[in-house]
Each structure stands twice: as structure tokens, then as C-alpha cells.
Write a structure and sequence with these properties.
about 400 residues; alpha/beta; Rossmann fold; six-stranded parallel sheet; 15 strands; binds uridine-diphosphate-N-acetylglucosamine; binds uridine-5'-diphosphate
Length: about 400
């Protein structure tokens, strides 16, 4: 009997990073039954938008999101919802990706049911339990419960071994985000609908214009004063340098939306827009002079696109981009962000680097689940990614 794999997907980045795994499992019909795709609906519009960009269709959607959801309430809805689906579907293997509440609860319910759990993007650590919050706690809690740890990089695998995870369970696969990026990398100009007039980003002749900033922010540990300080600092920068243009797809979280509009909404050179579908966002990244972000996925994508990225956090679980010289850990202090942005704008752009993947992570994960031994991902920092 071929194993039945159930893939749990909760938020926007999980679509990006699991769509390649679902495709790889579908291609391996010789080894697996058709995968069952479960959306928990921890995200609503963001999940739908991303799923349609990738053509990822859910077999079932628990639609669990509530506006302004608290972590305990979300956790309890997820535990009950996932348990009912696992009872009905009886999977042989459950997969989830990353460090969201969806992932933590999926691993927990698998443990209660003695189901085998595979963790995609395992082993990322900052070693600060509250940064990022709750992601560092989620991924640490998942580790003792997983049967397969698909570490994206050698450093992530080393983190797991340091915590005592059995080496036979740890596999370096590369990050599936690079599979996704390769499948979606926009090659033609894209028009972004912005208040005050559409903005055209041309990924082919990037960087053009040379003073375009792209911003994303959503980390819980920044809510309140740190987030307001970042936004007000950027408002000051945009006021002092009216030739700068900021493109800012604003996360729908009410803790982000209100402060974003209050700090930047009145500035003519700040384009606050709804979250972009993946092809448009990839084009926006390629067309940016500098990316400012607290996102995990964007830290991985920017180096592959060769776009300098400033990480607006105090810690990162993705040191490879910093080591490759493409990412810079700037923190949340407005003066430091301003100085780093101006410096990045006036520095020559480096070549694309690919420390996070080679585009074959999904196939490696499917092969490993099938009991095969594919060649591991070898960090190829310094080599140009094949699509650029
Ligand atoms: C979640 C994850 C975070 C991940 C991020 C990716 C948790 C606790 N957090 O953060 O690890 O990096 O997703 O984006 O797992 N909302 C909408 N529509 C949507 C999505 C969100 O309105 O489609 C609003 C809702 O008010 C919701 C709130 O945003 O309650 C927060 O959503 P939630 O998933 O709890 O946290 P994120 O900050 O999105
Ligand atoms: N992204 C997107 N449109 C946007 C903002 C982000 O398609 O408007 C993509 C981005 O390219 C990356 C993923 O969403 O693949 C990252 O999601 P997010 O920052 O919400 O989560 P994180 O990676 O921090 O968990």
C-alpha cells in the first residue's frame, strides 16, 4: 500500500514553501497516494491569494481565522480542528512547514495520535525564545516530535544535532522557497495598483528607478512602540528624501494596518498597498533598490534575486544571507535603519547568491519520504542562481 501524505497549510508563506512539496509528491504517484491538502485557514485572504497564485487547491479548509486572533484561542481551535481531520482522513504521514501556530499544533496532534510528522524547514534558531515570538518557541517545540527533519541548510541541521536530534532523522534539502521562486520568477514588467497612480516595476531592467524601497513588516514582537518607531523613522526618511519611493504592501493584521496608515499614509512618496500576489511581489522585489523587511521568506528570496535586504529585527535565524553579504541585520532603531538604507542605496549591488536552495528541495523531500537517498543540498554560495 502506498502511503497517504496529508499536507497542512496555514498561512501565506506555508503556501509558498509547501506548493513545491505537494507538486513533488504528485509527481511521485509511483510511491505515494495523491496527497491530501488541508488548509487550516489560520490566514484567510493571504492564504487564498497565495494558493491561487500557485494553483494549490485544498481538499478541505478549516477556515479557522478570526480577526485579531489571540495565540491561545487560535491554538485551541487548531488542535481540535486538526484532530478531527486526522481522525477522518487517517494519514500515514503528516507534513507541515516552518514555525507558525499551525505547524506547532499539527506536530502536537500527530504526537497525540502517534502519527509520523515531517517538518519542512526544520532547525532554524535564534536561540532567543522570544525573538521571533512565537516562532522560536514553535519550532523548538516541534523538534522533539518530528520523525523527519528537512533542514534547509547545513547550519540548520547542525542546530538540530546540537539539540540531540538523531542524525539519521536530519536531512539537508535546501529551502523549498527557492523551488517556488524559480517557478514564479517574473520576467516581464508588472503594474502595481497604488493610490495616486499605478507603479510599474520592471524586473528585467532592475534596479530602476534606483531609489525604490520595498517594505514588509508583521512580527508580533515588534508590535507597539518598536513598530511605530520603525514607521515614523521611515516617514522622516521619506520626507527628507522626496526622490525616494517606498512600496509597502501592508499586512492585514490590525496591529500593523493602523500604525502603518497613521505614520505613512499622508506621504506622497509612500505607496501603501494591499498584499501582493506572489508574481507581483517577486517583480516588486526584483525592481527594488533595497528591501526592508522582518519577513523570513523575503530574507531568503532577496539574496537569490541579488537585491540588498535590511532585516528590521534584532536577531535572525537565517545567518546565511548575512554571511553571503546580501542581508544586513539592522534592528528596529530608526537612526540605524536610516543610516543602513542610505548606505545600501549608495553601494553597488552585488551578484545574486544562493545560500538557501537550488530549486530541488521539494523533489528531495519526496524522495526521502519514499525511503530513497537523494544527494543532499550543497550550499553553493557565490554561484549565480540559474534563472538570473
Ligand atoms: C502568522 C504567523 C507568523 C508568520 C506569518 C506569515 C503565528 C502565530 N504567526 O503571523 O509566524 O510569519 O503568519 O505572514 O503563527 N489577517 C487577516 N487576513 C489574513 C491573515 C491575517 O485579516 O489573511 C489578520 C487577522 O486579523 C488575524 C491577524 O491578521 O487575526 C493575525 O494573523 P495570525 O496568523 O495570527 O498572525 P500573523 O501576524 O499573520
Ligand atoms: N509575499 C507576497 N506578497 C506580499 C508580501 C510577501 O507574495 O505582499 C511573499 C514573500 O515573497 C514570501 C512570503 O510571502 O514568499 C513571506 O510571507 P511573510 O513575510 O508573511 O511570512 P514569513 O516568511 O515571515 O513567515
Amino acid at each position: 500500500m502506498k502511503p497517504r501524505v496529508l499536507v497542512v497549510v496555514g498561512t501565506r508563506p506555508e503556501v509558498v514553501k509547501l506548493a513545491p512539496v505537494v507538486s513533488a509528491l504528485e509527481r511521485r504517484g509511483d510511491a505515494f497516494e495523491r496527497p491530501y491538502v488541508l488548509f487550516t485557514g489560520q490566514h484567510r485572504e493571504l492564504l487564498e491569494q497565495m494558493a491561487s497564485a500557485f494553483g494549490l487547491v485544498a481538499d478541505e479548509n478549516l477556515a479557522l481565522m478570526r480577526d485579531g486572533q489571540s495565540l491561545p484561542a487560535l491554538t485551541s481551535r487548531l488542535v481540535e480542528g486538526l484532530d478531527q481531520v486526522f481522525e477522518a482522513q487517517r494519514p500515514d504521514i503528516v507534513l507541515a512547514q516552518g514555525d507558525t501556530t499551525t505547524v506547532f499544533t499539527a506536530a502536537l496532534v500527530c504526537y497525540y495520535r502517534q502519527l509520523r510528522f515531517g517538518h519542512v524547514e526544520a532547525g532554524l534558531r535564534t536561540d532567543d525564545l522570544y525573538r521571533p515570538f512565537p516562532e522560536e518557541g514553535n519550532r523548538r517545540l516541534v523538534a522533539p516530535l518530528a520523525a523527519w527533519h528537512f533542514a534547509p541548510t547545513a547550519a540548520a541541521a547542525e542546530n538540530l544535532l546540537r539539540e540531540g536530534v538523531l542524525p539519521s532523522r536530519v536531512h539537508v534539502t535546501g529551502n523549498t522557497v527557492i523551488d517556488a521562486l524559480l517557478s514564479m520568477a517574473a520576467r516581464s514588467a508588472v503594474s502595481l495598483p497604488c493610490p495616486g497612480g499605478d507603479v510599474t516595476v520592471d524586473p528585467v531592467s532592475a534596479p530602476s528607478p534606483s531609489r525604490r524601497l520595498l517594505l514588509t513588516l508583521h512580527r508580533r514582537e515588534s508590535f507597539g512602540a518598536p513598530l511605530e518607531a520603525i514607521l515614523n523613522g521611515l516617514a522622516g526618511l521619506l520626507t527628507d528624501y522626496p526622490d525616494l519611493e517606498l512600496i509597502y504592501p501592508v499586512h492585514p493584521n490590525p496591529h500593523v494596518r493602523g500604525p502603518a496608515a497613521a505614520a505613512l499614509g499622508h506621504l506622497p512618496n509612500a505607496r501603501l498597498i494591499d498584499p501582493l500576489a506572489y508574481p507581483e511581489f517577486v517583480a516588486a522585489m526584483k525592481g527594488a533598490s533595497v528591501i526592508l523587511t522582518d519577513s523570513g521568506g523575503v530574507q531568503e528570496e532577496a539574496p537569490a534575486l541579488g537585491v540588498p535586504v535590511l532585516v528590521l529585527r534584532d536577531t535572525t535565524e537565517r545567518p546565511e544571507g548575512v554571511a553571503a553579504g546580501v542581508a544586513r541585520l539592522v534592528g528596529t532603531d530608526p537612526a540605524a535603519i536610516r543610516a543602513a538604507t542610505l548606505e545600501a542605496l549608495s553601494s553597488p549591488r552585488g551578484a545574486p547568491r544562493s545560500p538557501y536552495g537550488d530549486g530541488s528541495a521539494g523533489d528531495r523531500i519526496a524522495a526521502l519520504l519514499a525511503g530513497e537517498s537523494p544527494a543532499p543540498f550543497i550550499d553553493d554560495v557565490g554561484r549565480r542562481t540559474p534563472f538570473l
